[in-house]
Amino acid sequence: MNLTVNLRRITHPGPTQNHQPLPSSGRAGRNLPAAITVGVTMAAVALTLLFVSRAAFIGLVCVLVVVALWELAGAFARKNYDIALAPAWVGGVGMIVSAWFLGLEAVLGALCLTVFAVALWKLIDTSSDRAVTDVMATIFVLLYVPLLASFVILILKSPHGVWAVLIYIALSVANDLGGWMLGVLIGKHPMAPRISPKKSWEGFAGSLLLSIAVGIGGMIWLGGPWWWGIVLATLTTIAATTGDLTESLIKRDVGLKDMSNILPGHGGLMDRMDSLLMVAPAAYLMMRVALQW
């Protein structure tokens, strides 16, 4: 009985509670020492695995997908949505593995199979009285997390492999860093005050400028036309901003400050993955066109 209860707690995390964040150390509203320490540590782990072992990096992506789905399940539970975590975890990992071994078509196939499994899971689960809305919510998180994360693996599988992934990560970091710098220094005009009051048009300009510098340098490094770096940076900046606002919209709707408190100074994993997820398909498609994969 205890084992059954513990397993259910894992697959049904329950409504996420708001936690008291660490004391803010500046205008950014975060504890910068903690945020920088955690951010540098995460980057070091990801880059080490990326350059040492592709299999280990793919494993890391799978772990991140599992944790991100768990966070979203807890957030959605605040609105009484019951995400079918068990089939979502299996299907999400299956999509990541399919991306590496079989490509984009297999990812879409795995997504379809997972949707079928989720519907069947909810039909069997007699404890759910909102099966249709639960299925729709689960499909949303499948599209939001593992499907988008699969494009990271497709970038890794490309002819430029590790270096293309590094440029993709650099573009995401440039978006956050450029937006933070100009947003904190001169940000006065909110971009979406109802969704994310601290996100400003000045911050967006900072994200775009720094991303363009990274995009041009990255495209030259990968052997492509330099001007494609401007196109790449523009689209990834728009995608990253969309990712930030999408996650902020979810948190606003469910009444959360952060998706969780597992990353001191940052909040939850999804609070860091939001832009990375949205940037992945944009970076993949633009690199594929520009570099003729």
Topology of this protein?
Elements: H1 2-11, H2 32-52, H3 54-77, H4 85-101, H5 104-124, H6 131-157, H7 161-186, E1 190-192, E2 196-200, H8 201-222, H9 228-254, H10 270-291
Antiparallel strand pairs: 1-2
Number of separate helices: 10
Instruction: Classify the secondary structure makeup into a structural class.
Output: mainly alpha
Q: What gyration radius follows from the Cα positions, in whole Å?
A: 19 Å
The string of secondary-structure elements, in order, is HHHHHHHEEHHH
Can I get a quick summary?
This protein has helices at residues 2-11, 32-52, 54-77, 85-101, 104-124, 131-157, 161-186, 201-222, 228-254, 270-291, and strands at residues 190-192, 196-200. With 293 residues, it is an all-alpha fold.
Main traits of this protein?
single chain; 293 residues; mainly alpha; 10 helices; 2 strands; 74% helix; 3% strand; globular
Description:
α6 packs across α7 (161-186). The mean pLDDT is 88. This protein has ten helices and two strands; from the N terminus they run αααααααββααα. The protein is 74% helix and 3% strand. With 293 residues, it is an all-alpha fold. The chain has helices at residues 2-11, 32-52, 54-77, 85-101, 104-124, 131-157, 161-186, 201-222, 228-254, 270-291; strands spanning 190-192, 196-200. Strands 1-2 form a two-stranded antiparallel ribbon. The termini are far apart. It is globular. β1 (190-192) and β2 form a beta hairpin.
